[in-house]
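Format notes (please read before filing issues)

Several people have asked whether sequences and structure tokens are stored in separate files. They are not. Every record keeps both together, in the order shown below: the sequence lines, then the token lines. Line labels are part of the format and must not be stripped during preprocessing.
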Amino acid sequence: MDIALIAHDRKKDEMVNFAIAYEHVLKHHRLYATGTTGTRIMENTSLSVHRFMSGPLGGDQQIGARVAENTMDLILFFRDPLMAQPHEPDIIALLRLCDVQGIPVATNVATGELLVKALERGDFAWRELVHKYKPGIEG
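Then the structure lines:
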């Protein structure tokens, strides 16, 4: 599975702790992240993470492009609902694309845990069918 990890500044510690707690699950998947979040995860775990640009500099849009192509399987986006974000339109666009493509997205650690536990159980096998029957997508 292709999994994106994104966290606003005040949620980065939560994301790092989450990655540490679920490293045993995440290590079996291809991980992508926005700039600083990916760096912090790699500094604190043995996980390999493909890093896109920082969110405000276009990283959210880069991940959004993968979602639009239906090549991202899960997004863990720990948002800070109490802090205004200068790139809020990019964030809303990313979440809209997830809804359009039916990509599961968690915006907080509680939902993230539910989705990662489902991933660990194999409940995301339906995404393999999406890849198998979508033209131009390798499975």
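For reference, the curators noted about this record: The chain has seven helices and five strands. Strands lie at 2-7, 30-33, 49-51, 74-78, 105-106.
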